[in-house]
Fold:
Amino acid sequence: MNESTEQPQLSRKTLSRLKVRREFLRAAKGRKWGTTSAVLQANATMSRQTDAMRIGFTATKRLGNAVVRNRAKRRLRAAAADVFPELGRPGFDYVLIARPGALTQPYKLLLDDIREALKRVHQDRRSKGRGRASQNARRRGKTAQT
Structure:
């Protein structure tokens, strides 16, 4: 078989699904980042299988009827299948909550939103400059280093 046509293997990054309410609630206790198309929740898993990423998808009734909610979740599942193998971290549980942009945005922008959310939830909290000194410096128009 030609090597260029083979599907790439997920090296130690196995994607599985969150299915039980308790797992969704646990992921909600972790870091969150919202975009126009989805809210991403991420939390380190307590599972013994630390090389797996688990992903759950949900859409609230506020988004629309069942047909609309299912369409949004289908788009999020497809986008997650493209993005999470490259940017997701093993040993984390993720939940994607659909927003209205998940239905209307072009697919490329949906992918960009999920990539940005993944980068933000895994960003080191201390490197963002969110302390009291940094906030006061921003108000005065200065950077945190000066």
Q: What stands out?
A: The chain has five helices and five strands. The CA atoms of residues 40 and 145 lie 31 Å apart. The longest strand covers residues 38-44.
